[in-house]
Amino acid sequence: MVKNSNNRFAVLSNDLVVPRLEELERNFTSALSRMKGNLRAGAATKLGYQQEQKAKRLAADAYSRRLRQAGLSALSKEALAQVTALAKEGAALSGPTHMDEVYQLAADLHAESPWMRDVSTWIMRQMLAHVDAGNCGLAISPMILSGPPGIGKSHYARRLAELAGAPARLIDVGSGSAGFRITGVEKGWNSTQAGIPVETILSTHVANPVMVVDEVDKAGAMRSRTGSTTSLTTSLLPLLDLGTAARFECPFHRLRFDMSRVIWIMTANDADLIPAPLRDRAHVFHLAGLSAEDAVDHFERLTAGYGDRAERDQCCAFIARMAQASPGISLRQIRQLAGTLQSSAAPNMH
Q: Dihedrals φ, ψ of 10, to 5°?
């Protein structure tokens, strides 16, 4: 796993850093105390009850004014704490910082999913150019992994995030509300909430989480109580473009977030069913089913050290026949067969 870089990324403006109410109260109390001492030509003097209350009122007024100026007055206490912490500390960039780490990341991806070799090579080339330019952290253009079910498209995306040390979230388009889950929900809908990308950055303080949009070819639209509509396409488009992503305004927080470092990986069974605007903003990989060689190699890796050679050879022959027939064999089926072999071999492993 690649460790986080020490570099920080400003997802939110530092102008949103507002002192805590308790801090302002201490400041006003201290100021009034010094004023009282100066009037008596002495050191700072302890305030009476009425003067302490006055200091608190002044602090509360100043606090409310600063919240209004920063556009934070409508946030809940919890949301306000998250926003100000991120604005103050910035977010980390997870992923490679040196070329050696890029090569290691690509090698690990290829070793685990060799049938995704074209994807791993593309990621490696993008990351080498990124690091060579003096940048750090996982940074790849939006991509679409299109291919038959069962070849590990979503798993590959999550594994990329894991190897880079970045948080990953799965957004299932089949749920019908993916547009809401991406951008967030404003007033006028049944509930209000931040989108998954913003929520993830706020909770992890990582600027480049991996968003896995599953089954993007099933995108649809939804309508609110006020007649407004949202769809996956309209929600995703501004976040897939670096320029608009850097100025993304969260409808829940009503604040501008720089989402330009978020990683977008979409999966589909049929790329032709994906709306053209989404295809145009992503690199589309047309993936085939597992070849007999890749399927057998994957089984061998899963069962190394289990069972006798003759039994494993029989399983490999069966897997090869399945891979060559229609509709092919899936990783899930290979894992199930490997699990059966491991279970039967477990008592004889000593």
A: -85, 90
Q: What is the pTM of this model?
A: 0.84
- Quickly tell me which residue has 């991406």 as its tokens: 182
> Given the structure tokens 């939110």, which residue do they identify?
12
349 vs 342: CA distance, rounded Å = 10
**Crossing angle of helices 153-164 and 99-112, rounded to 10°:** 150
* Spatial distance between the Cα atoms of 241 and 259, rounded to a whole number of angstroms: 10
- Give the type of residue at 100: D
pLDDT at 347 over 60: no
Contacts of residues 182-188 at CB distance under 8 Å and 24 or more positions apart, as own/partner, are 182/211, 182/213, 182/232, 182/235, 182/236, 182/239, 183/230, 183/235, 183/239, 183/250, 183/251, 184/250, 184/251, 184/252, 184/253, 185/251, 185/252, 186/251, 186/252, 188/224, 188/225, 188/226, 188/228
Give the pLDDT of residue 30. Answer: 85
Rounded CA separation 192/123 (Å): 36
Q: In 3D, which of 192, 229, 228, 231 has the Cα closest to residue 74?
A: 192
DSSP summary character for residue 271: G
Closest CA to 216 of 259, 262, 157, 260: 157
* CA angle 181–185–189, rounded 5-degree value: 120
DSSP-H helix ranges across the chain: 21-39, 49-70, 77-89, 99-112, 117-132, 153-164, 178-183, 196-204, 232-240, 242-245, 276-280, 292-302, 309-324, 331-345
pLDDT over 60 at 202, yes or no: yes
Site of tokens 């946030």: 75
Contact criterion met (CB below 8 Å) for 253 and 230:
no
Dump pLDDT digits (tens) for 256-266.
Answer: 999 999 999 99
Q: What is the mean pLDDT of residues 6-30?
A: 88
Reported as a single tens digit per residue, the pLDDT across 103-112 is 999 999 999 9
- Distance, in Å, from the CA atom of 242 to the CA atom of 263, rounded to the nearest integer, reads 11
Could you tell me if 270 and 146 are in contact, meaning their C-beta atoms sit under 8 angstroms apart?
yes
Does the structure show a pLDDT above 60 at 281?
Answer: yes
- Percent of the chain exceeding pLDDT 70 equals 87
